[in-house]
Amino acid sequence: MGRTDYLQDGRLRWLRFVLHPTSPRPEVRDWVGLYKFARKQALVGLCSPTRFEGELPPKELLLEWYATESAIRARNAVLNRRAVELTERLRADGMACCILKGQGNARLYPDPALRMSGDIDVWVDADGAALREYVKKQFPDAKEGIKHIKFPVFEDVEVDVHDTPLKLYCPWRNRRLRRWLEENKAAQMAHKVRLPGTDADVAVPTAAFNAVYQLGHILIHLIDEGIGLRQIVDYFYVLRELGGAGAAQQAAVRRTWRRLGLLRLARALMWVEREILGLEDEFLPVPPSAGAGRLLAHDILDGGNFGRHSSRQRFRRHGRAAKVADGTWHLLRLSTLVPGEAFFHFCHKSRAFITKFVLK
After folding, report:
1. d(Cα 194, Cα 342) in Å, to the nearest integer?
2. Across-strand partners of 124?
């Protein structure tokens, strides 16, 4: 499917319009379909028609949409306050920190309150052992993940604290990533912004850091469960901010992508950003790749937010063998985009499967 075919989809035309609101407003023939699409892709707030002049959905749907939009706005207000409280708590305990994704991305939107947000991810300047000790001392039952630990300090917002924001499966590229993170950590902890409706600053990543880190985050989710358009829209605004930082910053990002093995994925994503979302060429650090971009676009549009609505899910319900077969086929499809990561992810999953089900 090429660009022209994608833009025959009224839902994608509407999304492109809300990202470029000075362009002509497209006709919407299926408001229910647009709303379902926005829910699937976690874009209900951004795609809300209440912000634009012109035809509105039928009354019943409009009221539901408006109620959802109001809930998103209220949720973002809570998350902004909690991000400030979390930052102040960690700083008081002697830990520098940086808010990742979420509210840091929302501030780049024309209306930050309309981004559908989830939990709070925070990168803490502490090694893994010290961070676990800090959290476990307060919450002994806190659950641990591969690169984060739950920090249930709030009843209304889930918090994940990270000693590192990103890990790659390829061993030597992960070593390069760790060096790059260490070299850039201090600048991220010192990059302060004021979130809407708050009275204190929090640290968020710089544009150049986000362009690398969030592409890596997209990669990890892509080869595991999948990604949706919310992450791609986030990256749309990250690239715009990076473009405003100048050509030297774009060149530095390009070099880092190459060192970390992210260049093929970056070129695929540039195609999606330009051909589907309409991002201008001046904001693209590398030329788009049409073939890789179409492969990526299919996965994004099929899967929805974090792959939760993928057509693959129906097959995966047939048991453990079906899940293994699906995961292997998924990695093979994506191996042209990220060959090293796909291979080492397969090795990681195979080892985990053998340990859990064969050697138990």
Report:
1. 38
2. 97
**Which residue in the block uniquely carries the two structure tokens 């899910």?**
313
Q: Is 149 helix (H, G, I), strand (E, B) or coil?
A: strand
- Residue 162 phi, psi (nearest 5): -120, 135
Place of tokens 């791609």: 232
Rounded Cα–Cα distance for residues 93 and 183 (Å):
24
Burial of 4 (0-12, 13-18, 19+ CB in 10 A): exposed
Q: Are strands 148-150 and 159-162 parallel, antiparallel or unpaired?
A: antiparallel
**CA-closest candidate to residue 46, choices 236, 233, 238:** 233
Nearest to 165 by CA among 202, 200, 118, 131: 131
pTM here is 0.90
The answer to whether 206 and 190 are in contact (CB under 8 A) is no
Element (H, E) at 117: none
Tell me if residue 122 falls in helix, strand or coil.
strand
CA–CA distance, 25 with 53 (Å, rounded to integer): 9
Q: H or E element: which one contains 162?
A: strand 159-162
Q: Could you give the 3-state DSSP secondary structure of residue 166?
A: coil
Buried b (16+ CB within 10 A) or exposed e, 152-188: ebbeebebbbbbbbbebbbeebbeebeebbeebbeeb
Q: Sheet harboring 159-162: ordered strands across?
A: 97-100, 120-124, 159-162, 148-150
CA distance 80 to 155: 15
- Report the pLDDT value the prediction gives residue 236, as an integer from 0 to 100: 98
Residue pair 300/272 in contact by the 8 Å Cβ criterion? yes
Across the chain, which has 360 residues, the per-10-residue mean pLDDT values are 69 96 92 96 94 90 96 97 97 96 94 94 94 94 87 95 93 95 97 95 97 96 87 97 94 97 96 97 96 92 59 54 66 77 74 60
Domain spans of the chain? 206-360
